[in-house]
Every structure is written in C-alpha cells, then in structure tokens.
Amino acid sequence: MKYSFIAVDIQNDFATEGGKSYSHKPSIDFMKKYIFPYFILNNIKVNEIISDYRQPRPGDSGDMCHPGTWGYESVMPAELQKSLWVKNMNSPIWIRDNGGDGNKKPGLPFPDSNAFGIWVERNIGKPSEVRPVVFGLTIDCCVLCTVQEFRWRGYEPIIIYEAVDHANGNEEDKKAVLEKSALRWWAETILWEEMKERLKENS
After folding, report:
1. Which InterPro entries does the annotation name (predicted)?
2. 70-94 confidence digits (pLDDT tens)
3. Which of 23, 31, 138, 195 has the fewest C-beta atoms under 10 angstroms from its C-beta?
C-alpha cells in the first residue's frame, strides 16, 4: 500500500502571525522544521487543499484567504506541491465559480462531490492503491471534514499527530479530539516517527 500526502489550509491567514484568523499553532512550526525538509530530501510531493473564503458564503461570516493576497498563500514550499484543490467551505466538496481566481467575482459555494472525487483519484489514487495521509488546519474542522470525505469514499486515512492542531492551538483540546472523539472512527492517528518508518518499509 502506498501513501499520498494531503495538506489542508496551511495558508498565511490561518498559519502565520498577522493572518486574519491566526492563532499560534505548534503544528506549523513542526511542519517547517521536520516534515517539509524531509519531503524535500526524499522528493515527496504533497497534494494541497486550500480555501478561498471570500464572501458571499451563506452560513459563515468569515472573509479571508482572498486569492492573489498574502493571506491566501500557503506556508508549504512551492516545490513540494503536486496538485491543488480550492474549497470554499469546511468540507472539500464545496466549491464555487471563480474559486481561486482573484481577478473575478466569486460565485456562491455549492457542493460537487463528483468533481472532488475525480481530483482525488487523479492525484492521490484509488482506495485499493493508497492511504491518504492528511495534515494541516484544523483537526476539529477542515481536517476532520477532509478525512470524513476520504473514509466515505472507501479510503483509510491517516493523520500525523504533530502536524495538526485544534483551532485554538491548545494541545489538550487537540488530544481530546484525536483520542476521545468519534474522529478515531474516521482516521488512524500516528506519530511522525512512525510515519517515517512506514515510508522506509515501503521504499
């Protein structure tokens, strides 16, 4: 079984001081210090899911991650990106007309499960071939929604413990979601060192 990595919402507006929805999250420091250098050294590419959270977004008053601005940009080194999916709500199946295009007026978000499924199979693989390894922001929201979508499609997703955070950045709240909630049904959680061992065994 192969592994395919997916980063969720590691954009400046969420992950960097000065971002519109920033709070300190230890996972970002961990990615920069350990995960990204490892990926670069081993030529491992990452599929990114990012957000275009411009208004209008019925049900959510947030207005951030505007395409073409610093807040929209990812903190992941550009050379690691394999493919890109732009979502407009917490779940990745929600997209919009002109999503990701800062030069055009965005349409209303709408769900398109089929389009997301096509992107997943094309860039990540089929459930019989690959296990998605998901990391990013946040474990109580968009990362959770992402692993749910993978599980419903027949995948067995993995979460890297050190590479996710609760929205408030609190370690105890992260542990509660990972260890005491229904998330355990949706995905397996492993430490980064164990993930590296699995990659070695697969090489």
Report:
1. Isochorismatase-like_sf
2. 999 999 999 999 999 999 999 999 9
3. 23
Q: How many residues does the chain have?
A: 203
**Residue 14's Cα: distance from chain center in Å?**
12
Give the separation between CA 39 and CA 47, rounded to whole angstroms: 12
d(CA 160, CA 192): 6
pLDDT at 182: 86
> SS3 string of the chain?
CEEEEEEECCEHHHHCCCCCCCCCCHHHHHHHHHHHHHHHHCCCCEEEEEECECCCCCCCCCCECCCCCHHHCECCCHHHEEEEEEECCCCCCEECCCCCCCCCCCCCCEECHHHHHHHHHHHCCCCCCEEEEEEEECCCCHHHHHHHHHHHCCCCCEEEEEEEECCCCCHHHHHHHHHHCCHHHHCEEECHHHHHHHHHHHC
Amino acid, res. 155: Y
Q: What is the pLDDT at residue 203?
A: 80
Range 2-202 classified under CATH 3.40.50.300: no
d(CA 147, CA 126): 15
Contact between 136 and 8 under an 8 Å Cβ cutoff? The reply is yes
Residue 32: pLDDT over 90: yes
Confidence tier at 114 by pLDDT (50, 70, 90): very high
CA distances to 96, 122, 179 from 203, rounded to whole Å, are: 39, 22, 30
